[in-house]
Amino acid sequence: AAQEGFDPEDIEGELAAAGHGPLPRLAVVGRPNVGKSTLVNRIIGRREAVVQDKPGVTRDRVTYEAEWAGRRFKVVDTGGWEQDVLGLDASVAAQAEFAIEAADAVVFVVDATVGATDTDEAVVKLLRRAGKPVVLCANKVDGPSAEADAAMLWSLGLGEPHPVSALHGRGTGDMLDAVLEALPEAPAQTFGATVGGPRRIALIGRPNVGKSSLLNKVAGEERVVVNELAGTTRDPVDELIELGGVTWKFVDTAGIRRRVHLQEGADYYASLRTAAAVEKAEVAVILIDASESISVQDQRIITMAVDAGRAMVVAFNKWDTLDEERRYYLEREIETELAQIQWAPRVNVSAMTGRHMEKLVPAIETALAGWETRIPTGRLNAFLGEIVASHPHPIRGGKQPRILFGTQAGTRPPRFVLFASGFLEAGYRRFIERRLREEFGFEGTPIHISVRVRE
Ligand code: GDP
Ligand code: GDP
Predict the structure, then answer these.
(1) DSSP code for 259
(2) At which positions is GTP 1 bound (predicted)?
């Protein structure tokens, strides 16, 4: 442990400084045009990330990482998804519902220049019932003269309205201080990080890939009622299904059931549902229709699961319909379109014929094992030492950054912290990740690597 500049005695402190472990989640909700996107950008400190989206354009990402006063958290962005399709109240209610399910605290944004509307009041009721901590953001308070508008929002009964100008940054610091007070140190117990009970699977994929068919097949009976009437299923339903002698919990299957009455323009709900299911699950089974080209929508769903840090299995469905030509092109597409998740176990199934259903459980078990893998610190550092010796970082500006020490800060998914003597380039980090996977497996799981630079 003679590494320069690194204090192995204080590994706990080093890790705390690096902010490791699963991050708590903050959701930003509110009516369209109150300034949610502007605020999210402010919080994550990236101007270009969200704002430029046109209405109706579905975003790729749902969660962003943010840091304030040295604490890291996730920001769950609920805005921007085809808000008009279902009518204003329904879409805002869906956001709130999602926030309730998936977030540890909520920022509720109100346009102070407009005041509280009926829609705002309705959301307040939903949020209150849920009992999650809420920080009230009175937005568009661009100057002192508008402070009085903010004070009017005491009437919502959510406590102090924080006057903010998301556009100019005014008041956001005070509001974020309140957010940190509201946010727990770690995410709620009911989500991904929890141990115990049946393992939780989210079966996700775009409409018509065969989710309900697959669920029916694995459940061995017509569990999922296809022609259910609109709105009859209110609560998310988790189904316990026995597979391979083990009971699994398929989370949020109500999202699958509901799809029927949401045919056109259902993307908004579908995105929220998918995100909520992923948050609740340990492993995501991503269903892709093998008979069609891999789409942007498929990619978006994959990104959600990767961002959420879940174990992952990719199941190509409708294999019964594939001819040789399609199989050829599918393989090419997988190489180019799914390069980011080469590590995910793959199964080629048919929910219709039952083909390869028995391969699903072993794939899920493999992914969960990868997700929970822990590499002892000694072994990790022996491995890092070899890399540093055989493939040193390129010299930059006369200096050569070196990895001094590494440790696995967490599992589910595996998180590594590398302490280095200088900035490690993205290419070098990718190289390290590739070598880690070659050496230790990590099949079916994203892995996080962060680097702390010791001056
Ligand atoms: P969202 O639909 O809730 O995500 O709202 P946006 O972030 O897209 O903002 C809607 C409009 O309000 C945009 O034109 C923003 O520039 C504007 N806006 C957002 N925050 C503020 C603010 O603090 N002050 C003022 N004056 N305008 C704002
Ligand atoms: P969901 O929207 O993802 O739940 O998809 P569904 O389960 O409703 O399936 C959409 C359509 O694809 C239905 O017509 C199914 O019968 C069909 N389908 C589902 N799985 C398969 C499969 O493995 N092979 C074939 N040929 N059709 C399938």
Answers:
(1) G
(2) 30-37, 77-81, 139-142
Ligand 1, atom 17, lies closest to the CA of 35
Which pTM was predicted?
0.69
**Residue 193 near residue 412, CB atoms below 8 Å:** yes
Taking all residues of the chain, what is their mean pLDDT, rounded to a whole number? 82
Residues 29-48: pLDDT tens digits?
A: 888 889 988 898 899 886 44
- The response to whether 140 counts as a known ligand-binding position is yes
Closest CA relative to residue 351, chosen from 316, 317, 315, 322: 317
Q: Are 26 and 106 in contact (CB under 8 A)?
A: yes
| Residue with CA at minimum distance from ligand 2 atom 17 | 210
Residues in contact with ligand 1 by the CB-under-6-Å rule are 30, 32-38, 79, 139-140, 142, 165-167
Interface ipTM > 0.85 = no
Closest C-alpha to ligand 2, atom 15: 210
**Mean pLDDT lowest among 98-107, 240-249, 381-390:** 98-107
User: Quick check: 414 pLDDT over 60?
Assistant: yes
57 phi/psi in degrees, rounded to 5: -95, 120
pLDDT per position as a tens digit, 156-199 = 999 999 999 999 999 999 999 999 999 988 765 444 444 567 89
Phi, psi (degrees; rounded to nearest 5) at 190:
-75, -10
3 state DSSP class of 67: strand
Rounded mean pLDDT, 195-205? 84
Looking up tokens 């065969």 gives 210
Ligand 1 midpoint to CA 205 (Å): 32
On whether 79 is known to bind a ligand per the annotation, the reply is yes
- Minimum mean pLDDT range among 179-183, 250-254, 440-444: 250-254
For residue 369, the Cα-to-chain-centroid distance in whole angstroms is: 20
- Give the pLDDT mean for 217-244: 59
DSSP secondary-structure letter at 236?
-
Helix or strand or coil: residue 54?
coil
Q: Is 54 annotated as a binding residue?
A: no
Distance 61 CA to ligand 1 centre (A): 20
Task: Work out which ligand 2 atom sits closest to the CA atom of 317.
Answer: 23
**Count of C-beta atoms within a 10 Å radius of residue 303:** 17
Q: What pLDDT, on the 0 to 100 scale, is given for residue 433?
A: 94
The H-or-E segment that residue 33 falls in is none
Which numbered atom of ligand 2 lies nearest the CA of 350? 23
